[in-house]
Amino acid sequence: MSSPAIVNVSKFVSGNAKKFGEYVNYIDRHEAVRSNNFSKFNVNAFDGYHNYMENPEKSTGLFTATQTQLSNQEKEQLKKAFQLAQTNDSIMWQDVISFDNKFLEEQGIYRARTGYLNEGVLQEAVRKGMAASLKAEGMEASGVWAASIHLNTDNIHVHIALVEPHPTKPYKTFINKQGESYTARKGSRKQGTLDLMKSTVVNDLISRDKELMKISELIHSRIAPANREIIPLMSRPMRQLMNEVYQELPDDLRLWKYNNQAITGIRSKLDVLTTMYMEEYYPEERIELTEALNEQVATTKRLYGDGEKEKGRYEKYKSNKENELYAKVGNVLLREMRGIRKEEKQHYEQSVGDKREPFTPKNLQPAYLNKLKKALRKDFDSMKNKKKYQELQEEMERGE
Fold it and tell me: pTM for the full model?
């Protein structure tokens, strides 16, 4: 089993815990002193790679959401914030984000031979990860955190401590191992929050945003844009299947949505239509999307390992993106068919007058099929303009 590129572990203690007090005591001490006494305030026994968390061989100074290096005055202000949090019985959360050093070397962030580490890049990634996790927990305004980078031989890791000077977590009643009840603030965070923090950190380090944007662009702009028009020609099998779908759709037009349960029996035929459509008219884009998804799966496997839990996550990602594509194209077809059905009903009502004969949908006439043909046509100019605009925005952000 491969070793993941990044892991995180997390624990928390209440305001009256000794570890909380020790952390506060050492906030404003020299970094060498903090490192030598790390075990006094550390609550995570292991770093996520099954390595025991000993006193770091070397540690960088504390950094925060806004400060890269803290002056003595800023350390004192941070200490007061942690003291207030302890007085108000805040939880103290401690997170450890550990990296496979080989992964950091691959990204050009670390060099084992010289010991070089781009601390600024790691700090910024942690800031983004913490911002995402605080938002997920509703703690953007209340959370105060400090972190330091520990430079160990096997796995460089970042040690983070988070508190709330004015706590927002409610008190709840819990049962201890002896079966006794006690009251304390809720300290557990959602697993999704911890996963979000880790994925935000790693995505920032490897800049996967462009690859993820490529996948979205293939689905939403190149294969199935909202203003799509279908290709001028439609094969006979496609016409036959299109008619079958049209005939089987329910009378209530409000139900004509891809994920609506009312069309569950028709959805598979819509998927076949989508597959035929892509194979006939967009084979290169379809291959490109598959390759992009496979690449993302491989990258995610490298980052998080190939355990059963992790495997399920990245395979689910690929499946979700495939489903997203089929839903997008399916809704384009249904939207056009809805317009045709409305027009067909209108003509029917005008022709029968006051007669109350039941309406029966007919096979799609050539004129209607032409509308469907236009419904999924590729708008290359729009796609190119959108891509050019995106490139211009990136240049502006880089200051070029």
Answer: 0.56
